Amino acid sequence: MNIIRYIIQKEFKQIFRNKAMLPIIFVLPLIQLIILSNAATFEVKNIKFAFVDNDKTSLSRELVEKFEASSYFNVMTDFPSEKLASKAMLEGKVDVILEIPSYFERQLLKNKKADLSVIINAIDGAAAGVENVYINQIVQQFTKKAQVELFLFNNLGNQPQNIETIPSFWYNETLNYKTFMVPGILVLLVTMITLFLSGMNIVREKEIGTLEQINVTPIKKYQFIIGKLFPFLVLGMVLLTVGLIISKMLFQIPIVGSLTLMYLYTIIYILVILGMGLFISNFTDTQQQAMFIAWFFMVIFILMSGLFTPIESMPQWAQLLTEFNPIKYYVEVMRMVMLKGAGLSDIYPQVLKTFLFAIAMNALAVISYKKTS
Amino acid sequence: MTKDNMIQVQNLTKMFGDFTAVNNISFEVEKGEVFGFLGANGAGKTTAMKMLIGISKPTHGAATVAGYNVLTEAEQVKRNIGYMSQRFSLYNDLTIKENIVFFGGIYGLSSADIKEKSQAMINELGLHDMADSLVGSLPLGWKQKVAFSVALLHNPKIVFLDEPTGGVDPITRRQFWEMIYMEANRGVTIFVTTHYMDEAEYCDRVSIMVAGKIEALDTPKNLKRQFQVDSMNQVFLKLARNIE
């Protein structure tokens, strides 16, 4: 036990003595948290909205005003013709064109029906879909109001019956995107730092030559590995703590669930990542190689974690692969515990799988670590 | 095997694929002996030494070090040997004291023991002013002296030194060899590789490896007589040239 203590002591001394690494460990992740949480959003905002008003009546102006009132649209000046508006879209100055036909008001009054033409730049298909929904919502609200105003006096008994849906958004009532992203980004930070640091740590000793010196001592494999990895477990936990404090203070992210549960799960999770780091360092000779391999896994794990794109919309084979992605489970657990207040019974499958990964990964790492060649 | 043999090597061979790095070598080293292990670069010295210190497995043959089999009792071997590698073996980003504490600690020394030993070592090396400075900031000669002392912390029976004086100035080399002699007089067996032929003259016995084989093994005096030359340098050159 004492031997492990000496190794841990030495690792901490080296970590805190490295003036270049210290800011990398603590400052960079937090900058990432702050930047990514604000920037990584799927919300479609500031839509450049152009309109061509061929009608020029009070009704058509009222419709345009509705768009002006919406925070999602930046309404630009009236384009005299559809042609000019299309040209602006080609140049990228416009995302959406609404064309109001001549006699729009008259048609609506006469036939109780009128057509509007909407052109959406759909290079980004997902954004175009969202824009379409926004436009439809505004137009529907507008028609409802117009119907009431226009037909009230002559059609009292013949009011259209509308079914209205009133959504209530659970767990993230204000639909704040950050609430959804921050727990996931915290996962990334904890994972990246612990994986890269542990992966490169032992390789670094190989490079310097001190590992050979260690291998000539009667130190046991498990003593060395525990001594090496424990400091990074602590670092990961410190990072999570700082990240949680920032999430709470800066982004007002609710922390509904149990912190104890979150920390306990994180310990198991970091063990998986540290096992991976050690495994990588066993098969590499230079820090550069270790870095590239760690990065390879990191990119795949992040993109297949459900953090940025929903796993449900991946092809079947990819969904199967995500079963082996520890980051996926951590993202799920963080979102569930932080936002929904999930308890141990809710995250039991994730805990069990992560625990199995931790055992498997560390067993592989210990077996592949050789004191002799 | 006599009782006093600290190292006993029989037909030791190491192959990497088709290449035979160490080819069927056999020798013994007695207790308290300063044994010089010479050879040109790539002759197989370091590979042979790695098998003796238990970090490389022999392909054939057997060796016992301090009475323990290097293949089956590697951990016992490691407990009884000190090793100082060609590449610098202390942590540059730790101070002298911290290095002593760490290496003392992983050999299982008690903290009182570590304290006492580090004090003694600092006194002996006259390092009072530098004990708290980073090893990385020391001149090479100092580093090597500290590394040698650290390799002796746990009172090993044998110390393996792999080119300990490479790149070190002549005065410091002389001091280093004085340290080696002091330990040998205390009964520690010294197994040392070197490229400096003047250092070979200081050894009790010398073996010369050429292309994986031991081509000569005797006292420096006998070797010079055998090859009819008057320095170890000439012995070495003659041997290397004959083989080629």
UniProtKB/TrEMBL annotation, chain A:
Subcellular location: Cell membrane
Gene Ontology cellular-component terms listed: plasma membrane
Taxonomy, superkingdom: Bacteria
Record keywords: Cell membrane, Membrane, Transmembrane, Transmembrane helix, Transport
InterPro entries the UniProt entry points to: ABC-2_transporter_component (IPR051449), ABC2_TM (IPR013525), ABC2_TM_bact-type (IPR047817)
Membrane topology: Multi-pass membrane protein
Ranges for domain ABC transmembrane type-2: 132-372
Pfam families the UniProt entry points to: ABC2_membrane_3
UniProt-recorded Gene Ontology molecular function terms: ABC-type transporter activity
Bilayer-spanning residue ranges: 20-40, 180-203, 224-247, 253-280, 292-311, 347-369
PANTHER family on file: MEMBRANE COMPONENT OF ABC TRANSPORTER YHHJ-RELATED (PTHR30294), MULTIDRUG ABC TRANSPORTER PERMEASE YBHS-RELATED (PTHR30294:SF29)
Family of the protein in this entry: Belongs to the ABC-2 integral membrane protein family.
Record's protein name: ABC-2 type transport system permease protein
Natural source organism: Arenibacter echinorum
From TrEMBL, chain B:
UniProt-listed Pfam families: ABC_tran
UniProt keyword terms in alphabetical order: ATP-binding, Nucleotide-binding
SMART domains recorded: AAA
Residue span(s) of domain ABC transporter: 7-236
UniProt-listed InterPro entries: AAA+_ATPase, ABC_transporter-like_ATP-bd, P-loop_NTPase
Superkingdom: Bacteria
Gene3D superfamilies per UniProt: P-loop containing nucleotide triphosphate hydrolases
GO molecular function: ATP binding; ATP hydrolysis activity
The protein's name: ABC-2 type transport system ATP-binding protein
Organism this protein belongs to: Arenibacter echinorum
